[in-house]
Amino acid sequence: MTENAEITALIKAVEEADSAERLTIALWKLAQARSPEAIPTLIEALGFNNPGAAVAGVEGLVALGEVAVVPLLKQLDGFNYGARAWALRALAKIGDPRGLALLLDTATHDFALSVRRAAASGLGNILWEKMDPKDRATAQENVYQTLLEVLQDPEWVVRYAAVVGMQGLAKAVNANSPIWLSQLLIQLGDRAKSDEELVVRARAQLAYQQLQITTPA
């Protein structure tokens, strides 16, 4: 069987699945094929009322990486809310800068805490080397300012994700030492002492300690 024929058969198995379990299994097999031809089917799976299928769709898209970004962004407007949430998770994991504007907006404005959480942590996962160098510094500072705002989120899981995002951002900009990097460290140190949730304080303390080891004075 040729590769194209194999992908066609895997897609057909998804389309013909007659139970939630079989659908999930078929989607995982399709995801593991890592074929760009599978992208439309994997994106469609994000809209199914089936969390297992959606997870398979997300992981398949993440494995494909940047080739999946434009199709994901193009499909967002037409999706139902659940599909949009799963698509956001995929974009956050991929880290392509083309999804940055969406992540910035979602981290602060989405009404679902799980989606804000995914966006906040995803902001620490941006692959900055894929962005035009002349735009990079401004974009990184915008990410910092957004995460600073998210650090005030009423939901602790979102604040936790903001801490994770801040640590990822700090690691990415460490070599350039932007003037706001020291403020980022101060914010993490303060959060380690002041957050009302122990788990957020602990995560902020961990990030603060790890960054102090690697960040120039």
Give the assembly state of these chains: single chain
Q: What characterizes the major β-sheet?
A: none
Query: Any idea what the radius of gyration is?
Result: 19 Å
Low-confidence stretches: none
Percent strand = under 5%
The tally of helices reads 12
**Overall pLDDT level:** 92
The helix content is over 70%
Number of strands: 0
What is the distance, rounded to the nearest whole angstrom, between the alpha carbons of the first and last residues?
59 Å
**Class from helix and strand fractions:** mainly alpha
Note the run of SSEs as H and E. HHHHHHHHHHHH
* Shape annotation: elongated
Which terms summarize this structure?
217 residues, mainly alpha, 12 helices, 72% helix
Question: How is this structure best described in words?
Answer:
- With 217 residues, the protein is an all-alpha fold.
- The protein is built from twelve helices and no strands.
- The chain has helices at residues 3-16, 20-33, 39-45, 51-64, 69-75, 81-94, 100-109, 113-122, 133-150, 156-173, 181-194, 198-214.
- The protein is elongated.
- The chain starts with a helix and ends with a helix.
- The model has no long low-confidence stretch (mean pLDDT 92).
What's the arrangement of secondary structure elements?
Blueprint (H helix, E strand, L loop, with lengths): L2 H14 L3 H14 L5 H7 L5 H14 L4 H7 L5 H14 L5 H10 L3 H10 L10 H18 L5 H18 L7 H14 L3 H17 L3
Helix pairs in contact: 1-2, 2-4, 3-4, 4-6, 6-8, 7-8, 8-10, 9-10, 10-11, 10-12, 11-12
